[in-house]
Amino acid sequence: IVVTGSDDHLWKMWALPDGNILMTGEGHTDWLSGCCFRPSGTQLVTSSGDTTVRIWDLSRRGCILTLKGHARAVHDCSWHSQGDFVASASMDSTSKIWDVNSERCRCTLRGHKGSVNSIEFLPFSSTVLTSSADKTLSLWDSRTVRRLF
């Protein structure tokens, strides 16, 4: 199974190798830039040009949470390996760590001088890796909101 997002504002879940569409998600109002399964496989996180990050419950076949707080398009999203946190990277030069259980932004990572284009939690760690249009990579401790590198 793979998930794709596109300019048509939809994400689609595909069965491999036959290519059948298993599920489609609609709700974003602009292009989709990222899709990532929760480690348990029960939910999906998506990021979009509409400045939001959405959590989708696959068994309910719908959006269960919309996270708002970025000022510009969101380029990427990622789940923490334990599944309680989501990270997002935005054109507004910030990244955010979202607590899925409290449905709130836990912290905002500031320091890049350009659009933050990708974000990833290092496995089984509180460390986050970001890459930016300012041609830098940064490592962050998401617990202390401190840039490590």
TrEMBL record:
Keywords: Repeat, WD repeat. Pfam families: WD40 (PF00400). SMART domains: WD40. The keyword Repeat applies. Transmembrane segments: none annotated. The keyword Acyltransferase does not apply. InterPro entries: WD-F-box_domain-protein, WD40/YVTN_repeat-like_dom_sf, WD40_PAC1, WD40_repeat_CS, WD40_repeat_dom_sf, WD40_rpt. GO terms for cellular component: axonemal central apparatus. WD repeats lie at residues 25-66, 67-108, 109-149. GO terms for biological process: axoneme assembly. SUPFAM superfamilies: WD40 repeat-like. This is SPG16 protein.
